[in-house]
Specification:
Strand order of the largest sheet: 1-6-7-8
Number of helices: 6
Shape: globular
Helix content: 25-40%
Number of strands: 8
Distance between the termini: 13 Å
Largest sheet: 4 strands, parallel
Strand content: 15-25%
Structural class: alpha/beta
Order of helices and strands: EHEEEEHEHEHHEH
Oligomer: single chain
Length: about 180
């Protein structure tokens, strides 16, 4: 599954990784309003389908509504015997601040994930090439070492990646997750 705030590049990431053609918006409103599936793609001989989710802070639904939607979908998949190997959480490295909405979205994401499933999380710092080297490295360091940000998830086993909007970068992230043992 691919999660994060509105405008972090979730649908673009899915399209880049899988060659899908999910709608992407450049407007100020959220584009993805429901769960969308990518076309299947082979990663190291494994068939992978990415689950594109609405932004946790989308324009027309509350964070709680989005979390309930995602949770219901994942529960339905589990009941059908479909395995989710992990979750990609996108965060814009280009964001100057980690404001209230970003923190609220991160907390909602953490609450959605079982503690034992945190080893199957890839935190993806997206839009990597939009920020100069020194700034992005400083932001990455702060995001990974502060308890209020990604540190608890990283300490629990999540892995930090950066993504520069090319297919090989996206597939490396997916490759990491498909090798993990699925967790509920």
């Amino acid at each position: 599954s691919v999660m994060g705030r509105t405008g972090t590049g979730k649908s673009s990431f899915v399209n880049t990784a899988t060659g899908s053609h999910l709608a992407v918006s450049s407007s100020l409103s959220s584009q993805t309003r429901t769960i969308q599936l990518s076309r299947p793609v082979k990663i190291d001989s494994k068939r992978v389908i990415l689950i594109d989710t609405p932004g946790l802070d989308m324009t027309t639904k509350s964070t709680e509504e989005v979390v309930r939607l995602v949770n219901a979908y994942l529960t339905k998949m589990r009941k059908r015997g479909t395995t989710v190997h992990g979750t990609i959480y996108l965060h814009r490295i280009s964001d100057n601040r980690m404001g209230h909405i970003a923190l609220e979205s991160l907390v909602a994401f953490q609450e959605l994930c079982a503690q034992e499933a945190l080893t199957n999380i890839a935190i993806v710092l997206n839009m990597w090439e939009d920020v100069c080297h020194n700034v992005r490295e400083t932001r990455k360091d702060v995001l990974c070492t502060r308890k209020a940000y990604f540190k608890p998830i990283v300490d629990a086993g999540a892995v930090i990646f950066h993504h520069d909007r090319i297919a090989s970068s996206a597939r490396d992230i997916i490759r990491h997750l498909v090798t993990r043992i699925p967790q509920p």
